[in-house]
Design brief:
Blueprint (H helix, E strand, L loop, with lengths): L17 E4 L7 H16 L5 H12 L1 E2 L4 E2 L4 E4 L7 H26 L6 H20 L2 H8 L5 H4 L20 H9 L8
Antiparallel strand pairs: 1-4, 2-3
Helix pairs in contact: 1-3
C-alpha cells in the first residue's frame, strides 16, 4: 500500500499488489493442494473470481521462458488492484498475507524432518538456481529496485538463495521424484479442482 500526501488529506494514491507462490524442490501433491486451497479460501472471502484470476496471473508472472517452466507450483499474484475501494483491497491483502502463513507453516512442520542426502541437496541447489534466474532476469520488483538511484543493492537481492547450483543440460532420470517436479512446473495444474 502506498500513501502519498498529508495524513489529514487521506490517501492520494493507493497501490495494492502481492502474492504467494510455492517453490518446492520435491513435489508432495497434498502439500500443493493444501497451499492452493488455503489461498483460494482467503480469495473467495473477498471475491469469488479472485483465486482463478490471481492463480492464472501467478502462473504467467513466475514463468521462466528460457527453461519452459515456472518458478514453482503456483499460488496467487496480483498487482495494481483498483477493482474495489482501497479499504476493501487493504483487507484482502491483509487476509491474503495471513493466509500465506496458514498455508506455509504447516507444510514446513510436516516436511522439516524428512530425511535427505547428497542427491536431494544437489537437486535443491539446482532448483534454487532456477529461482535465482527468475529473480534476476524477470522479476519486476528486482529490476525496479536495481534501477533505483541510491538503492541498497544487498537489500534488493535478499530474496536470492545463499547457495545455488547450475549444471549443464541437467536432466533428471525419467520417473524420478526430480522429474516429477519438473513435469509439475512445466504444466499448469488446477490444484483445487
Amino acid at each position: 500500500v502506498y500513501r502519498k500526501g498529508a495524513r489529514e488529506a487521506g490517501p492520494v494514491m493507493a497501490w495494492f499488489g502481492g502474492g504467494a507462490d510455492l517453490t518446492p524442490a520435491y513435489l508432495f501433491d497434498d502439500d500443493v493442494t493444501y497451499f492452493h486451497q488455503t489461498l483460494k479460501h482467503a480469495c473467495d472471502a473477498h471475491d469469488p473470481h479472485y483465486y482463478a484470476r490471481f492463480k492464472q496471473w501467478c502462473d504467467r508472472y513466475f514463468a521462466i521462458p528460457h527453461r519452459n517452466e515456472t518458478r514453482g507450483v503456483g499460488g496467487i499474484f496480483f498487482d495494481d488492484l483498483e477493482d474495489k475501494a482501497p479499504e476493501q483491497l487493504f483487507r484482502f491483502v491483509y487476509d491474503a498475507g495471513n493466509a500465506f502463513i496458514r498455508a506455509y507453516v504447516p507444510l514446513v512442520a510436516r516436511r522439516m524432518a524428512t530425511p535427505y542426502g547428497a542427491r536431494q541437496r544437489e537437486w535443491q541447489l539446482v532448483r534454487r538456481g532456477h529461482y535465482a534466474e527468475f529473480n534476476l532476469v524477470y522479476d519486476r520488483g528486482t529490476k525496479f529496485g536495481l534501477m533505483t538511484p541510491g538503492a541498497r543493492i544487498e537489500s534488493i537481492l535478499m530474496s536470492l538463495p545463499l547457495t545455488a547450483r547450475w549444471e549443464y543440460m541437467n536432466q533428471p532420470e525419467p520417473g524420478s521424484p526430480e522429474a516429477r517436479l519438473l513435469d509439475a512446473v512445466r504444466t499448469t495444474t488446477d490444484w483445487v479442482k
